[in-house]
Amino acid sequence: MSDQEVKIPEDLHNIVQNSIQTGLTRRKARQRQNHLTAISAAAVCCTFLFFFQTNAVFAKTVMDLPIVSHIARLFLASDSQTEEISYIADIKIPQLENNDQAEALNTMIAEQIQAHEASAKQRAKEEYQAIIQTGGDEADYIPARISIDYQLYCNNDQYLSFAILFTYVRAQSSQTVDCYNVEAGTGRTLTLVDLAGTDYQQRIAQEIQRQIQAKPEAEQAVYNDDLDWISLIGPERLFHLDHNGNLIIEFEKYEIAVGAAGVQTFTIALDRLQ
């Protein structure tokens, strides 16, 4: 410590008094601010409670706000790749969770995928053997490409809609699609009867014809004449639901129109079928 003498200011008393007064003033200001903040918060709370209690429409609106929860969720359960001289296979298996009723559907999906996979691999082996037995060179052989994948269309509090896609590619390609439409709350598989009633064929046919007639004449001309819409929209007709819950009906190339028109897709709001 330094031995230098410390000189005490002559106005030390005034400095101390001024500092004390400044501190008290700031403290009172903070107290007033906190008090006003508490009053403002209480006023807002009371205003909301008063409005909530006296306005029945507002209260009902708040109570009826939807709570979003995907009751049934689709996820990738397994993803495997295998390669042999006759094929290259990429197999994805989806499954459902968060639903007590999903077990039976998961079993069905797994069994169908296994059946398609076994059939495609057997086809690839037979094609390879046929080429080799007729003098083909193993070194030049191009293996078949086997793909099993899925596509999610809709997953909300009402519906879960997805498809399993089975694709086989070698000299020519082919694809098979299996659609699954599930009621989210129950896990029940939905049919066109569930969505449009027992007379769904007539209702859907009328809506599709209405949409075609609304097209320009040049676009209407691509459709085949004398189509039997009732038989086209039978129990085996594939469909799915989009993210808005609309019904999607697709017709394959050449099925209802000339080949150049490609796949024909119709989007139908469910309330139009009621």
UniProtKB/TrEMBL annotation:
Membrane-crossing segments per the record: 36-58
InterPro entries named in the record: DUF3298 (IPR021729), PdaC/RsiV-like_sf (IPR037126)
Residue span, DUF3298 domain: 197-269
Source species, domain of life: Bacteria
Keywords: Membrane, Transmembrane, Transmembrane helix
Name of the molecule in the record: DUF3298 domain-containing protein
